[in-house]
Predict the 3D structure of the following.
Amino acid sequence: MQAEQCFTASGIPVKNIYTPEDTEDLDYDKDLGMAGEPPFTRGPYATMYRGQVWTIRRLSGFNTPEDSNKLYREQYELGQTGFSVAPDITTAVGVDADNPIVEYEIGHSGLPLNTIEDVEVAFDGLPIDRVTTYLAERGPITTMYFAMAEKRGIDLKQIRGTTSGCMLSWACLNIPLQPTPKGYLRYGVDFIEWCSEIAPKWNPINHDSYNPRDLGLNAYEELGLLFAAAIDYVEEEKRRGRVPLDRFVRRFSFNTAAHNDFFEEIAKLRAARRIWYKIVTDRYGIQDANCAKFRVHVQSSGSTHTAQEPYNNLVRIAYQTLAAVLGGAQSIHANGYDEAVCLPTDQSMLLAIRTEQIAALETNVTNTIDPLGGSYYIESLTNELEEKTWEYIKMIEDMGGMAQAMEDGWYHKLLRDKPIERQKKVDSGEIPIVGVNKFRSEKEPYKVPIFKPDPATSREIQAEKLRKFRAKRDKAKHAEAMKRLVDACNSDENAYPYTFEAVKAGATFGEVMKAQLDAYGEWPYPVGL
Amino acid sequence: MDKRKVKILMVKAGLEGHWAGLIVVSNALRDAGFEVIYGGNMTPAEIAATALQEDVDVVGISSLTANYMLTVPAVIKGIKERGKGDVLVILGGIIYEDDFDALKKIGVAGIFIPGTPMEEIINFVRDKTSALVK
């Protein structure tokens, strides 16, 4: 039996078969080009995986900097090729571990990083001069990371890695004590300007649509948000005019999800490269094509993983990983199959790394670049996604841009409605999930090994470390550095040179964040029913 | 006289950011005819105080982080200390199976893991609160 009509996950109608007619308007040089050449549809680099296979980078961290350091060392031993640090929720909120509002949170869902010493402990013995690090935070922890690197004798002009800092992902958290989106944008732009000068090879921002996608947006809505947000940052710099735009955007990096619709996800990454090229080149007139390379980290989609029959997830993750590879990702995080059950066990972490290594070494999919390029279907889908993404970008721009759309509540209304919409489709069976709403087993569920962190004492450990850290810092030097930081935050000056000085003078993460929040003003809780 | 509506406070205990499950279940319960107060993130003390102030029948807590063995007992203790022992407490999210017994012992009436059909949660709450609205 054949379904009458088929659609991609984002609702694009799919034909029974595609033919040359579907791609007859395609101009190879203008629309595709060789890999490493504009518009980069086929890949940002000329050699792609033959030159360097994607980075295996899994976001992780738990309990304390000490315990997380052990985890990072293990991951490195297993052949992970990039570090990726997930601070805990207190760090996302922007307070130190001894703040009463985070009584129950320390070391859950990430690790606490409050001081330069915490950062030193977390990276102790790790070769950060050779391996790149991703820091899932907005800037201050990176200044601590840079200070640590300087101490180790690493030239900041050469240091490589990424700070997340994107407003899209941050706003999804819906946590207290946050600045307004425009305040967030302001210090994001400060941070990019500062990095472009002192650490020009560092990716100072990772425009990240993973969280909104995982909340239920579709592929082109995901790209629309991603680029509308990136445009906001460039527009802000254009308004300021402090840093040449080519230098400002040169190290922009991106982060998307890899969802279930296999071909659509591949086409999405191809469309994204062409769109970013056009934004940089056509819209901003930046001549250096290196600035127009869409470099992307892709993570398998946690919202597709189920607590029912957890081993099914390892199949989902493998498909999603393959989509990321065929789409030409620079860095990939394959999830643990047990994500809906617990934090990853040793075995699920190993399996996730092995999933990527098997794709890289055993399947031969890396032998040729953009192997699906030229497929009537893939090219047609790439075009359709591009077109729909432009429409979505325009819609957001018509609202005044991403930060404005956030301040006006549009973004959070979207984030509230999408999960509800998706759940209704799951309840009705419109979105099939094997083992959940299709072929749900009536048998007693099988068990998988679980990992239970024990952060019960993390708060005491961290609070004690903070007490000692504060006691031994040079009080006068610290006070002076904090005063200069506060003054900078309250002026039009870039706050990051002063943040860097403050953390070197012993300022804690919470103190830096408070200076920023006091200056930019607090944004009330956005999401409600 | 019209039947009164069962009143439910839906919250995340603490600061954790994974709120999609909470909003989805809150919406489903509201659609099913319950009166839902969406509390978002609250401290255990705030949850207990709100439960009392709003005189709710049910408190629903969502957790996708491993701190529920700290926060959930604190919520229940807070509610009891305020003299409101009759509240039905339900918990949803990523909950370790080997904690189920301990949670039930301290008074958690129902535990719902990801992938639970909305109907199952709705029926559970309806069942457990049917006496209140007769």
